[in-house]
Amino acid sequence: MSSLAAPTVFTHHAPGETRAAAFAANGQPIKLFCARWSGSGERARYGDVSNARLRSFVDDLQGAFLVLPSGEEAFLRLKSRDGLTEGALLRVIVRSEARFEKLARVARFQGSMFDRSPFELWCDQFSDNPKDSVREDPEKVAVAFDEALAPSITLPNGGRLHIERTRALTTFDIDTAGRKGRGSAGARALATNREATLEMARQVSLRGLGGNLVLDCLSPLNAEARQQLQSAAQSTFKQLGIDGVKALKPSPIGLLEVSVPWRYMPIEDQINQNPAEAELLALLREGQREANASPMQFFELCLGGATWQAYLSRRADADAAIEKHFNGRLTVSESPGPESRIVKR
To answer: What CATH number should be reported for the domain whose range is 49-108?
Structure first.
């Protein structure tokens, strides 16, 4: 696995969760991390090693379903049963985290067990592990997460890149509105397409995406331009520490196709996995900002509907986080309506 040169890492230790963002030397975010609550029932993380129990074989898929120590199910590719039986204990390493409607994928592992926190596992992807030199900066982290959830991104020299995920692939569409350029039509198209290709790679890294990608390039595109865009895609993904990428030259109709191995659960999937819990955590972050801005103020968190139920399902963890971060200045109550909000008291 390629390692990414050590970036600058910022963290935000918020009530109920820890978020982190890695920024490249040019000041752009390129990687995100999120872990919630105290780690109870923590999902399998990329690179984690554990002893898993073989639950059942799936011969038509040439693999088996395993149960990880947390109770999470995972899939192991097997060329043959190789003397294994159901119930066997296997040492495995996570090669792809679970994502929407997809199980985590694991591989057999012969090395020693090691105990790393989710954040330490995430830091392992960098050549110089930055976990001991991170800085707390909630605002930078918030900006990076907002960008990772945005449907469109502004290109460096104007124009927008629109991003849309489907079940089969992720599409990237270029909008040149507001962009100024010089030179011939071919030179302008190449400059814009190259920017979009670099931005596509960064967004894939930032959002934790994988699978098939398609960038709809601008025309005209000659043979040399197609070669340059293919090389730009391959080199940029490599610089971002992503191995196994296959990039094709843009097709005659201008579609640049890229295949990227899945590694992480996308940030979008992490939020959509439990929207009510995500809203609760967002409200707690908002409360933390307001409490830090007004050290003498007391607050009440009024929760309604599904958000109140999310609080009740995590009440012990939530109350412990609230006590730790607010020192008695925030109380929680049930709202009479479906909406949730923070109010001063």
So the answer is: 2.40.50.140
